[in-house]
Each structure stands twice: as C-alpha cells, then as structure tokens.
Amino acid sequence: MTMLSEPRITDELSRALLDAQQGNQLAWETVFRECYPKVRRVVRRRLDRSMRSLYDSTDFASDVMKSLAANISRLNFPSVESLIAFLAHVAEQKVIDEYRRQHTQKRDITRDRRLIARDQEDAPVQLPSDEPTASQLAQANEVQERLLARQDETERAIIRLRREGHSTADIAESTGWNIRRVQRFLKDLLDTLKD
Q1: 118: in domain
Q2: pTM (global) more than 0.70
Q3: 109/165 Cα distance (integer angstroms)
C-alpha cells in the first residue's frame, strides 16, 4: 500500500477530500494532484510486458480517477490512507480485468502475428480469402450439373435464373409460373440439396 510521508500533506488531503465530496473543484484538483501519481505507480507495477506495448499506465490511472470523480459523493473514506488503498485496489483490478479480457481465447494477444516478416524465420502470413476453395467449387459444379440434368425445361430455367440472381417475381414472370409455385419449387429444391 502506498503511504503519504508527511502528516501535513495528510491533513491537507483529508480536508481537500471532504471539500471535494461537497463539490469544491479546487479541492478535487488537490486530491487529483496528490493521488494520481500514486495510482500511476501502482498501474506501472501491475502491467506486464505484453500489455505495456498496448497500453500506457496513464490510461488506467486516468480511468481510476474518473471513476473516483464520478462516485466521490457516494464514497466515504475514514482516512487518506484508506482512499489511497482504495484507489490502488481499483487500479489493480482494472489492469487485471484488461489482462483477462486480452487473454481470453477470443482476443488472445499472444496469438497476434505480424503480416510482414521481419527476418528469415518469420514466414509471411497467408490471410484467409473470401474466394471459394477448389473443393467448394468442385462441389458446386457437381450440384449444378445434377440440378441441370432435370427433365423439365422450365425447372432448368428457374434454376439458371435463380443462380444468376433474379428475384422470385422475375422468375415467375419469365417462366409463366405462379410466384407461390416458384417459391415452393425452390424450397423443395433446397430441402433436397440439404438431404
């Protein structure tokens, strides 16, 4: 726990804390000026190497002080030491929470890799493409051949038009079928493909 060295500072800070709780802006600035460096030191001690490259200790310290400012009228501290201990605890918790958030499976920062290799050992990363793979294209071609092998010319026309991106209404107008009949045919076709 961080302690204040001089009793005079402790008395001034106690008065400033009480005045800040009453809404005195100058008193709040005094509390901030005395507490902020101590909170920043706590954060610096808690940040590990992986997080230092992502965050600055002042970000966490400012966040702690912002939380204190938002809740100062509801909090009651019997002494300045209890205020400092409270702020140190809040700072530690904020760092721990962010560390946990960064190291969840979803956002694990240890899994980050550079896109460009800096030396021979690092191979460039191959980014995933939105383009279909060769096997996906082969499967799609097989399904298309199977569908177009149907006996009925109208059904083949519906499949071809749908594949080109035409709406159900356009297909119904082109083929002379009712919209409901086209929708039912496409649904049955989709169900058959799923099976």
Answers
A1: no
A2: no
A3: 41
Q: Which H or E run includes 60?
A: helix 57-71
Helix (H, G, I), strand (E, B), or coil: what is residue 138?
A: helix
User: What sign results for the dihedral spanned by CA atoms 59, 72, 87, 101?
Assistant: negative
Better-scored residue on pLDDT, 164 or 77: 164
Q: What is the distance between the alpha carbons of residues 102 and 93, in angstroms, rounded to a whole number?
A: 14
CB 65 within 8 A of CB 36: yes
CA dihedral 47, 53, 58, 60 (to 10 degrees): -50
CATH number at residue 142: 1.10.10
CA atoms of 48 and 8, how far apart (whole Å) = 35
pLDDT digits (tens, 9 = 90+) for 123-150: 666 667 778 888 888 888 888 787 777 7
Host domain of residue 140:
135-194
